[in-house]
Design goal:
Cytochrome C Oxidase, Chain A, Protein NnrS, transmembrane helix, mainly alpha, membrane, NnrS
């Protein structure tokens, strides 16, 4: 079904255009800014201080922008209901940007909190309305995840207001693991399909609904453990939960694997990001069992390798497909994928013996990776489809 016409610039034709571009630009600057602030080189006071800003904004700023852009665009293909276009997309993108500026420049809480809180529920409403119109029950869990993310943000903002930074941390970390759940849900659908299409195979690997449902339920359980604070304290009884989830994701990866995927950057980048998700879960199991260094290391395996890795892979593909272009990314994107994956061991392991070296090198790899996306894809996201179709 065609998109509704809009007189606004093509940037606001569909949700992925402004949110992928803005989210990636934010990623380019946010991590180097955080590292500079961490080492005392920045004279600025964001809301709640730099650690609270970093913890919140990499999830509810960067991560949520890409999730929202993807869902606001994909919902049309899933349901046949026209996606938001024009003014609603402009307003949502403006609301997201306002939240980022208010956080960074330490706006008063009475202004920051309602502005920042509004974005996710509005996205959930837009997605929910489309799904309800066609009674597409199989995608209702996505609305549930968006509402849970909204609740996590509410708790994080309450923590900010009360200067209760334990509560703020609970909300932000729980949201990261909810995004991991979305990675499992959406990745479980698109990775085998993209692999089949990209390699010209007969058909994608058949899904195992029981495993899929168990992994989704486990992701929600992990998020609830983080939200309550229980998951932030090493406890041997929690180790089997993370271990089973990690092994479940590895089983999926092994079933999806095909040797030829390593010749296609848009495929190996997706598979590798999913592998980091599995490794992050196993690292959490080891941490709870007392056999792995720290919670921060496990969290950054997920945040950089898993979340950011899948984001970069997905936006590189979706931005081509939804603008009517061949699925052939610029050659430089292979370097971007390599650099982002290199940032994981630099941040997780090298930063332990050499903090400044590890942090700065990881920051450089991260910023260059997303900078390459912005450089090569901004002209695509700002230009009409070459086939003349809307979108």
């Amino acid at each position: 079904m065609p998109d509704r016409p809009t007189s606004l610039p093509v940037l606001f034709a569909l949700g992925f255009r402004p949110l992928f571009l803005a989210g990636s630009l934010f990623a380019v600057f946010a991590i180097p800014l955080w590292i500079a602030a961490f080492f005392g080189h920045v004279d600025l006071n964001p809301a709640g201080g730099w650690l609270a800003w970093h913890r919140h904004e990499m999830v509810f700023g960067f991560g949520v922008a890409i999730v929202a852009g993807f869902l606001l665009t994909a919902i049309q293909a899933w349901t046949g209901v026209p996606a938001l276009t024009g003014t609603p997309v402009l307003l949502l993108a403006g609301l997201w940007l306002a939240g980022r500026l208010l956080w960074l420049f330490g706006a008063p809480h009475w202004l920051l909190i309602p502005v920042d809180l509004l974005f996710l529920p509005l996205v959930a409403l837009a997605i929910g309305q489309s799904l309800w119109k066609v009674r597409q029950t199989r995608n209702y869990p996505i609305v549930l995840m968006l509402l849970l993310l909204s609740f996590c943000n509410l708790l994080a903002l309450i923590g900010l207001e009360r200067s209760d930074f334990a509560l703020q941390r609970h909300g932000a970390v729980a949201a990261l693991w909810l995004i991991a759940g979305l990675m499992g849900l959406i990745g479980g659908r698109v990775i085998p399909f993209f692999t089949q299409r990209g390699l010209g195979l007969q058909e994608p690997v058949a899904a195992w609904p029981r495993l899929d449902n168990l992994l989704m339920a486990g992701s929600i359980l992990v998020a609830l453990l983080m939200l309550s604070g229980v998951g932030l304290v090493p406890s041997p009884w929690q180790a089997p939960i993370y271990l089973l989830l990690g092994l479940g994701h590895i089983v999926r990866l092994l079933r999806w694997h095909h040797p030829q995927l390593w010749t296609v950057p848009l495929l190996w980048s997706l598979h590798l990001s999913y592998a980091w998700l599995a490794l992050a879960l196993i690292a959490m199991a080891l941490w709870h069992g007392g056999w792995f260094g720290g919670f921060s290391q496990a969290t950054h395996l997920l945040a950089i390798g898993g979340m950011a890795g899948m984001i970069l892979a997905m936006i590189s593909r979706v931005s081509l497909g939804h603008t009517g272009r061949p699925l052939q990314p610029p050659a430089a994107m292979s370097l971007a994928f390599i650099l982002l994956n290199l940032a994981v061991p630099l941040r997780v392991w090298l930063s332990i013996p050499l903090p400044q070296t590890g942090f700065w090198l990881a920051s450089l790899c991260w910023a260059t990776a997303f900078g390459l996306f912005v450089w090569y894809y901004a002209p695509i996201l700002l230009a009409p489809r070459p086939d003349g179709k809307p979108g």
